[in-house]
């Protein structure tokens, strides 16, 4: 079933790769939970210019277009198979003649979420963890979900994990995490990791008092959300360790990780530096990067 362009709901970028296929299935489940349409997108991009210029045969453009159509149709089949029993989702297909990143960012203006795989095939292989993904997670106007192509055990009962540092970006991540936990009917693990600097390296550091203060701040940050989502049981975690290591470690016991697009303190640079690279490379579960909407 087809949905109008203006009702994109969840947008998933596909290219036929394993991670792209996993992204299509995950996106379909997300769309079903939210009761919104799913838009399956493939961007047909010709190779970059060479020097000296080499003309490309017309057959290349035809082949790329044909591969894109096949990738979309296969992704739609996987999406339909991934839908929970009794759930129907309107599916829109979109074959674009554009660079992937600008196209996805533009579509994010009226999408609830953009979903991408961690690695692609062909021209989209520069996707997530490369230039395309880096651009999308920094500039999209809605949350961005990053999906690995690994075969993971069913963790539908596992909690949602969120990294919290008290920043505005962290507040957005908390909002997304509570919503996801509530929709899934699972607990929420709220993690505050103290610092990349070992406590032992801080002169005259009193960890017990620092931990008490961190626990108090974390509780305050979560109080309003717990009132809004009384159905979600929250596990508050304060760790004396670097955020990337703790997020990666705790992700083994979660079904989904939610992080902010930037931050300060213990989670500073979560998507703009070494922490983000470590998390996106090492965490195998889906990761949602909380981005503000275009209207925010």
TrEMBL record:
<feature type="domain" description="UspA">
    <location>
        <begin position="10"/>
        <end position="148"/>
    </location>
</feature>
<dbReference type="InterPro" id="IPR014729">
    <property type="entry name" value="Rossmann-like_a/b/a_fold"/>
</dbReference>
<dbReference type="InterPro" id="IPR006016">
    <property type="entry name" value="UspA"/>
</dbReference>
<dbReference type="InterPro" id="IPR006015">
    <property type="entry name" value="Universal_stress_UspA"/>
</dbReference>
<protein>
    <submittedName>
        <fullName>Universal stress protein UspA</fullName>
    </submittedName>
</protein>
<comment type="similarity">
    <text>Belongs to the universal stress protein A family.</text>
</comment>
<feature type="domain" description="UspA">
    <location>
        <begin position="160"/>
        <end position="291"/>
    </location>
</feature>
<dbReference type="InterPro" id="IPR051688">
    <property type="entry name" value="USP_A"/>
</dbReference>
<dbReference type="Pfam" id="PF00582">
    <property type="entry name" value="Usp"/>
</dbReference>
């Amino acid at each position: 079933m087809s949905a109008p362009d203006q009702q994109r709901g969840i947008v998933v970028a596909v290219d036929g790769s394993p991670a792209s296929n996993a992204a299509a299935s995950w996106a379909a489940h997300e769309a079903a939970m939210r009761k919104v349409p799913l838009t399956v997108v493939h961007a047909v991009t010709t190779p970059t210019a060479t020097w000296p210029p080499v003309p490309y045969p017309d057959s290349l453009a035809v082949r790329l277009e044909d591969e894109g159509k096949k990738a979309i149709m296969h992704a739609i089949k996987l999406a339909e198979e991934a839908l929970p029993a009794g759930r129907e989702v309107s599916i829109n297909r979109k074959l674009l003649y554009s660079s992937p990143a600008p196209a996805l960012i533009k579509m994010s203006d009226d999408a609830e979420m953009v979903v991408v795989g961690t690695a692609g095939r062909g021209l989209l292989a520069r996707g997530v963890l490369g230039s395309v993904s880096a651009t999308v997670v920094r500039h999209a106007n809605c949350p961005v979900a990053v999906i690995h192509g690994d075969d993971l055990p069913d963790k539908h009962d596992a909690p949602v994990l969120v990294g919290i540092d008290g920043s505005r970006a962290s507040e957005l991540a908390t909002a997304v995490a509570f919503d996801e936990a509530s929709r899934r009917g699972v607990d929420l693990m709220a993690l505050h990791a103290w610092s990349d600097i070992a406590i032992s390296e801080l002169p005259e550091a009193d960890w017990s008092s620092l931990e008490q203060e961190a626990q108090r701040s974390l509780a305050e940050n979560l109080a309003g959300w717990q009132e809004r989502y009384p159905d979600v049981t929250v596990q508050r975690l304060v760790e004396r360790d670097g955020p990337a290591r703790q997020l990666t470690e705790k992700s083994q016991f979660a079904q989904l990780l939610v992080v902010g697009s930037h931050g300060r303190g213990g989670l500073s640079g979560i998507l703009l530096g070494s922490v983000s690279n470590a998390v996106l490379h090492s965490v195998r579960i889906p990761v949602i990067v909380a981005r503000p909407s275009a209207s925010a």
